[in-house]
Structure formats: structure tokens, C-alpha cells
Amino acid sequence: MNFLSELKEGLAIAWDAILANKMRSVLTTLGIVIGIVTVTLMGTALDAMNRAFHQSISIIGADTLFVQRGSWLAHTEAEWLGFLKRREITWLQAREVEKQMTLARGVAPVVVMFQSVGYQSRNARGVQIIGSTDQFLVTSGFSVGQGRFMTEMESEGGRPVCVIGMDVATNLFLNEDPIGKRIRIGSRPLEVIGVLAKQGSFMGMKSLDNEVIIPIRQLLGGYWRNPDFQIQVKVSEINRIEDAKEELQGIMRKIRRLAPGDPDDFAINQQEHLISMFNRVAGIIATVGLLITGLSLFVGGIGIMNIMFVSVAERTREIGVRKAIGAKRRTILIQFLIEAASICMIGGLVGLAITYLMVLAVGRFMPVPVSLSIPVMGVAILVSLFTGLASGFFPAWRAARMDPVEALRNE
Amino acid sequence: MSLICLKNLSRRYQMGEETIHALRDVSLEIERGEYVAIMGPSGSGKSTLMNLLGCLDTPTSGTYELNGTNVSEMDDNELAEVRNREIGFVFQTFNLLPRSNALRNVELPLIYSGMTFDERRRVALEALTAVGLADRVTHKPNELSGGQRQRVAIARALVNTPSIILADEPTGNLDSKTGDEIMTLFEDLSRKGNTVFVVTHEEEVALHARRIIRIRDGLIASDEAVKH
Ligand SMILES: Nc1ncnc2c1ncn2[C@@H]1O[C@H](COP(=O)(O)OP(=O)(O)O)[C@@H](O)[C@H]1O
Ligand SMILES: [Mg+2]
């Protein structure tokens, strides 16, 4: 008897047995159903968390590299003063990086200064003025709430336009529509073409909405001829951030004509701690989830094992008859394994269906989109199959090894 | 060469301190086509002998040659194959699978021997027809009378065209009229060339056979031909 027909025969027998003991099968399956619901909910939650994180990663800028003179990791004042003695990063260097980077989704030169901003009789002091290009929208992860961002033409032409933060908009315009109005930055008038969407505050500290973004050429021409630049590089893939960093370092060293042995006279900063923090939290959640999941599946598996032992004991005579007629150990083993696996698979499918409905119901109230993904479903099915095989093994083994004479004498 | 050749076959059971000699040094030769009745009081070792003959059990000592091969040294899997190919069992309590209909019960040995679906359908139907149950193939055991159940069991024993048919008290659970019918069936099988062993308590039943072996305390007490 080949393996395929053994499988087919085993399936037929398993269905027979499951249908003959419907109530018992349902109760047994319950354990697995709960286990699989836990597995899939867990998986879906982790999935959603991951997705939400990757979204916020862009906003917060964890996939952005910041080229500056100084490192964010300076520990002492002496170190900091050392950075200030380094050559400045110039407009031309920034342009060169923009030209040469291949592993970037966007490169933006950035200069930050503070100025007071006014509209008609109202004034706001100490507003952060960011001079950059159209690429800044990509590198910063900001989004425009109203109007539009500057175009490449406006940026290259240094047009007198600006995009303002939410705080600036409310402070200067109250309820008026700011689009198309002219504000004063220092003494120069610029036209408001867009308002940024509200960013909120970063970890409750400083507001991210009190800023005005203007074309870098406007800033260079009107306010500050030779500033120290910061270059923001948004990497094309977060997974290749290390490669991008290496490329960037090479380009910077070449542009700044550093000899092979010289140390870098610039720093490439990144918000590493954000990623590592997330990974730590996700790791803890996954571990706890795995434990809970494993435990509930274990309990379900024990239930299956128990029922399978009962089933084997009840069908001792049947096993004897099958053996007398020519069933081999392997045939009996497969028969009971299939029975256990079938019960678990049914439980797994029911569990999946329940999870699907739960996700559908709960998903509406979630801030991020949640859905049952194909990999999670695949894992659930594999896990239920494995639980069935693992918990069915000992009972099936006992059945397979029964002595036929003893089995036939059984009442 | 004889179909069956037993040499000093013994089967002992160890019950704690005590050793039970269920069968002691039994030697026996059976030719193809013989019809043998095995008789003896309860506990004398009849079933033990049948189980050994049917390769369900292995002897504690001695050898058993079936068709010239020594089966007393085979492993579990080899014995299962021999049972499937060479042996047909009929039990006192029928031992049909309760949830399967007559046809499926009869098909079972063919499934284990790996026959294709269409062929085993045909062969199983033939076997059921041969025992007079062509019109009961879709009935489950609990929808059949005792005699009919035993016929299904006989069809199942026959379906693989085994070398030996072993029946351990096949009429024990039947009334005498039905029992007679079943015995007539065995007589038919024997006449068609099958080798048949029947265990029975009743002299009357045993007289259907052509050779009677009497067992007492695990020993062969007598072994004689029946004069018809
Ligand atoms: N599994 C066993 N364990 C111990 N003793 C057994 C076992 N099977 C049979 N016996 C003993 O072997 C002897 C022969 O049994 P058996 O062959 O069943 O007798 P019969 O079928 O002639 O009534 C009896 O004394 C019985 O108690
Ligand atoms: Mg007996």
C-alpha cells in the first residue's frame, strides 16, 4: 500500500471517526480554536505595529541621515568645540551630494535660522526658518495640509514663496485663509503657498509646527550668504541604511578632498535609538505573545492528545481487526495521526474564521489599518497541523504498537 | 511439501511467578485443501494455536513453516503482509467495523494490499455474491442479522484468496440453524479447494470436517480423519 492511498484511506477513516463523535470532536477542537485565534491575533497585531512603526519612522526621520559638522553623540564641551573648528559644509558640497547619491530617495540641503515673522499688524518672534529645496518634503516626512509645497522650479529659481507650520498659521492668520497672502520674514515679503499638516510635538517637548520653509536660494540671497549646511538624505530602503551611510561617507570624503588616512571632518547622524527602541519593544511583545500563544496551543494540544488516547482505547478492537487483516504499524500510525491532524486543522480553520471576523470588527476602531495577512494565515495553518501531529503522535504510536491478539481480546 | 509444517511449537505466557503453557511442543503437518476441525475443552489452547497459525502471534519456541517459508522469525511488518496475503480470519464475534457498510468491510483487506479502487469494488462484490449477500452490500453491520454478519466476515476472509481460512468458533454466537448454514458455507469453500480450520465445541459441527484434531492442556490428544 503506497503512501498516497494510505493518506486517502486515513482521511476517510478520520472523518468517519470525527463525525461519529461530533460533540467530543467539537469540544476537543475548542482548545485548538482558542490557540489559533491567539496566534493569528498576535500575528496581526505585530503586523499592524510593524506597519505603523514604518510609517512613523518616516515622519520621525529614522530612515533619514543627517550630514553635519558635528556628531550628535558629542559627550564633552571640548569635543563640541572641536566640531565648530571644522570646515563648514557648503552649498556646493550639498549640491554635489545630491548629484552623486544613488541609495537615496531624496537629498535636501538644509539651513536653519530664527527670525521674527509678521502679517499685517501681527508678529511672531523666534520662528524657525528652514531654507531648503522641494526635496525637503521627502527627507523631512512632513505632509502638506492645505495648499501645496514648493515646486522644483520655485526652489531652483529662489522664488519668494513659503510654506508655513500650523502654529505660525494660527498665530498670524487666526481664522483667515493664509494661502496667497504675503507674510514678512525679517523685512522681505513672501507669499504663503501651503500650510503643513499638524505634526504635534516631539515627545511632548518642542512644537514641530512653529516653522516656515522657504527656498534655499531665497535664504542665501536674502538673509545669509555663507551659512553652514546640513544635508538630509532619505535612504531608499530602511534595510539598506548602512550601505547608504557608507556611500554617503565616501562621497563626502571625496568632495571634501580628505586623504585616505585622514579622519572624517564631518558627521553622519541618524536617529538610531528610535529603531533600537522599537526593536526592543517589539521583541518583548513578540516574546510575551509567543509565550501566551505557545501556552494556549500546548493546552489545546494536551486536549487533543487526551481525546486521541481515549479514541485509541475505544477502538482497540478495531485496531486488532485491521491488524489481523493486514494493516501494518505504519498504516495504523498514519491513520491516527491523520485523525489528530484533521481535528486540529478544523480547529485551525475555525480559529482563522473567528479571527478574520474579529479583525474586521476591531479594525474599524484602529488608528492604523489592520488586516489578516496571508503569511499569518499560513503560519496558523502550519501551526495547527504541527500541533495535531505532535499531540497525536503518542496515542498513534500506542495504537500502532498494539499486539493484535491482545487487541482482539479486548471487550 | 506440506502447506503448513509445525515443529515443536510452544507458546508460554508468563503471569508473574507462574508460567502458563498454552501450547506444548505441538508438531503438525497440514496439506493444501484440508478441512480441519479443532476441538477441546475451554482453555485447552485452541485459540492460541489458531493465532499462531494465523501469524497474529509468534511462538515462544519451535518453528512454523507456511508455504515453505519460516514465519516464526518474521518481524511485525512481514507478518502483517503474510496475514494480508495468506490468511483469512473469521471470528466468533464477527469483528466487523461497525461504522462501515458490508462492501467497505469486505474491501478492507484489498485496500491494505494496494488494489485499485475499481478492481477492489469488483472483487469485493464478487465475494459478497459468493456468500449470498449481493443484495445487502450497503447495509451496516447493525442492519444485518447474526448469520448475515458472519457471511460478511467470511466474504472478507475470502476476498484476498488466502491460503488458509481460520475460523475460531464461528457458530458460537449463532442459533443452530444459522450455524448449520455457516458450516455448509465452509464445506463449500473446502470443496472449492480452500484450506479451512474451524474451532468448535460441538461434535456435530466438527463432523462437517475431514480431519479432527483434539487438544487438551496444550497438547494434541488425538488427530484422526473423519469417515463420511
Ligand atoms: N494473553 C494471555 N496471558 C496469559 N494467559 C493466556 C493468555 N492467552 C491465553 N492464555 C491462557 O492460555 C491457555 C489457552 O488459552 P486459549 O488458547 O484461549 O484456550 P481456548 O481457546 O482453547 O479456550 C488458557 O489457560 C489461557 O488462560
Ligand atoms: Mg478460544
CATH fold name of chain B: Rossmann fold
Number of domains of chain B: 1
Largest sheet of chain A: 6 strands, mixed, barrel
End-to-end Cα distance of chain A, whole Å, is 29 Å
Encode the helix/strand succession of chain B as letters: EEEHEEHEHHHEHEHEE
Strands ordered across the widest β-sheet of chain A: 2-3-8-5-7-6
Tell me roughly what share of residues is in helical segments of chain B: 25-40%
Low-confidence stretches of chain A: none
CATH class category name of chain B: Alpha Beta
Indicate the structural class of chain A. alpha+beta
CATH architecture of chain B: 3-Layer(aba) Sandwich
Order of helices and strands of chain A: HHEHHEEHEHEHEEEHEHEHHHHH
Give the chain pair forming the largest contact, with residue counts.
Answer: A-B, 24 and 26 residues
Describe the structure.
The complex is a heterodimer of chains A (411) and B (228). With 411 residues, chain A is α+β, with helices and mostly antiparallel strands. Helices cover 58% and strands 16% of the residues of chain A. Chain A has a six-stranded mixed barrel with strand order 2-3-8-5-7-6. In chain A, helix 1 crosses helix 12 (329-363) and helix 2 (22-60) runs antiparallel to helix 13. Chain B is α/β, with parallel strands linked by helices and 228 residues long. Chain B has one domain (4-225): Rossmann fold (3-Layer(aba) Sandwich), CATH 3.40.50. Chain B contains seven helices and ten strands. Chain B has a six-stranded mixed sheet, sandwiched between helices. In chain B, strands 2-1-4-5 form a four-stranded antiparallel sheet, covered by helices on one side. Chain B is globular, with a radius of gyration of 17 Å. The mean pLDDT of chain B is 93. The interface between A and B is medium-sized, with 24 and 26 residues. The complex binds adenosine-5'-diphosphate (ADP) and magnesium ion. Residues 46-47 of chain B line the site of magnesium ion. Adenosine-5'-diphosphate is lined by residues 13, 15, 20, 22, 40, 42-48 of chain B.
